[in-house]
Write a structure and sequence with these properties.
Rossmann fold, 34% helix, globular, alpha/beta, single chain
Length: 165
């Protein structure tokens, strides 16, 4: 399992909501959310806010569908939420996602808005294959939000909630 030193106390991993199909000539990077995706993003953002899941920092891929999902989260949690867009989260490996989390020194909780399969692979790196299979037997759905807490006694990550629309 991945080691992040010192770890934040909480990590949120959010897969972007459902994306629209690419228009002719449109780059994958530029695909926005579908109508259903906008609804998914708002629902998961509102549920996260209702549960008081508020990261100190929200980091999002710069791809349009991630920006749209992060914007919904930002609206639900208030304008004081620190939101940053990170180019490296697009087409990245799980190692890059983990390095980005690890680089957030002094941050108590961080949320990543990213892409599959990387978001799922990052979760697997943090909690292990068996825990991933039990928690997400059909895979990481669009607009799925995983909440992980660091258990300092066990020196491991524990999945504490999974929020879907």
């Amino acid at each position: 399992m991945a080691v992040i030193t010192p770890p934040p106390s909480r990590i949120y991993l959010l897969r972007h909501a459902e994306a629209a199909w690419a228009a002719p000539g449109q780059r994958d990077f530029d695909r926005p959310l579908s109508e259903n995706g906008y609804a998914e993003a708002e629902l998961v953002a509102n549920e996260a806010a209702d549960k008081d899941y508020r990261p100190d920092l929200l980091l999002s891929s710069t791809a349009a569908r991630c920006r749209d999902t992060a914007d919904a989260m930002h609206r639900a949690m208030g304008s004081t939420l620190d939101l940053r867009f990170v180019d490296e989260l697009y087409n990245a490996s799980p190692d890059i996602y983990l390095e980005i989390i690890d680089a957030q020194q002094g941050i108590n909780s961080v949320m990543l808005v990213g892409h599959n399969p990387t978001i799922e692979q990052t979760l697997e790196a943090l909690i292990g294959h068996e825990a991933l299979s039990q928690a997400l037997p059909t895979g990481f759905p669009t607009a799925g939000l995983v909440v992980l807490d660091f258990d300092s006694k066990a020196a491991s990550w524990r999945l504490v909630d999974f929020v879907i629309d």
